[in-house]
Design brief:
- The protein is of the alpha+beta class and 157 residues long.
- The chain is 29% helix and 22% strand.
- The protein is built from four helices and five strands, in the order ααββαβαββ.
- Strand 4 and strand 5 form a beta hairpin.
- It is globular.
- The termini are far apart.
- The mean pLDDT is 91.
Amino acid sequence: MNTKASESNQPAKRVQVIGLRMVRESTSILYPGRVIRSPKDAADLFRQFIGDCDRESFYILCLNTKNEPTALHQVSTGTLNASLVHPRETFKLAILANSVAIIACHNHPSGQPDPSPEDVELTERLRDSGSLLGIDLLDHIILGDGNFVSMKERGMM
């Protein structure tokens, strides 16, 4: 069979022309500190959104060159003890928001913020992916009951 002849007899392939834009939610907050200076600053901000959620929720905080928060995004809501997170979805909003850096955060509904092996692996993947994209992962914070763990402070990134 002559493939060139059969290809020329096929109808043309339609290619969609698309645009991509970021839509701001109607909700916004005023951040009085203006700049994230410590893991505690970030943890306090994330806690306003994650609160006492009964399932793992994974968020990112997008930052500009001055470490000022520009956007907060919920990447994933999971189950009682797991959340499916992929670098592709994590960095999508960071790219749209022109972020220089991000801080990742999720909660442990058990109340114990100690990083699991999966948390460590995810942090490494996000760090490496961000490095490739030119968007630094500054920290990965895990919220527990009234406390938190900064993986950066623990030397795990």
